[in-house]
Amino acid sequence: MLFPYCFSIVDEDIAMNKLMVTVLTTLMLSASLSVLAGDSMNGMNMKSSADAQAVHGVGVIKSMDVKAGKITLYHQAIKELHWPAMNMGFKVANPQLLVGLKVGQHVKFELKAQGANQIISAITLVQ
């Protein structure tokens, strides 16, 4: 009675292969759909490093950390990036850009893409 036992092993292998194909197909489809569905940034254009055009904005300094090279601004809408006016934290290309600036000051700034992030490459007081 070895003969029926051999068929049950083959049937189990076929069933396992079908299950694996189904699982892998489902995972790949799920990953594809999540990419096509978009992200949670609701239309905000986060330019890639390949598109390193400078974008300009105007805002008010809310906080900053010179040592860490970070600043939080309440900026006006930035049309080029489809960003509404909001509070937003940024890294600066060089922490020295923040020396002499103070919370509450009105500034003009330049953003350049660095990967998926926008980095402040220049910042000056609004006169």
Helix content: 25-40%
Strand content: 25-35%
General shape: elongated
Mean pLDDT over the full residue set: 80
**Total helix count?**
1
Please compute the radius of gyration using only Cα atoms.
26 Å
Mind describing the biggest β-sheet?
5 strands, mixed, barrel
Low-confidence region ranges: 35-41, 47-51
How are the strands ordered across the major sheet?
1-2-3-5-4
H/E element sequence? HEEEEE
Polypeptide structure, described:
- The chain has 127 residues and is an alpha+beta fold.
- It contains one helix and five strands.
- It has one helix spanning 2-37, and strands at 55-65, 70-75, 86-92, 106-114, 117-125.
- The longest helix has 36 residues, at 2-37.
- Mean pLDDT is 80; it is low at 35-41 and 47-51.
Question: Which helices and strands occur, and which strands form pairs?
Answer:
Blueprint: H1 2-37, E1 55-65, E2 70-75, E3 86-92, E4 106-114, E5 117-125
Parallel strand pairs: 3-5
Antiparallel strand pairs: 1-2, 1-4, 2-3, 4-5
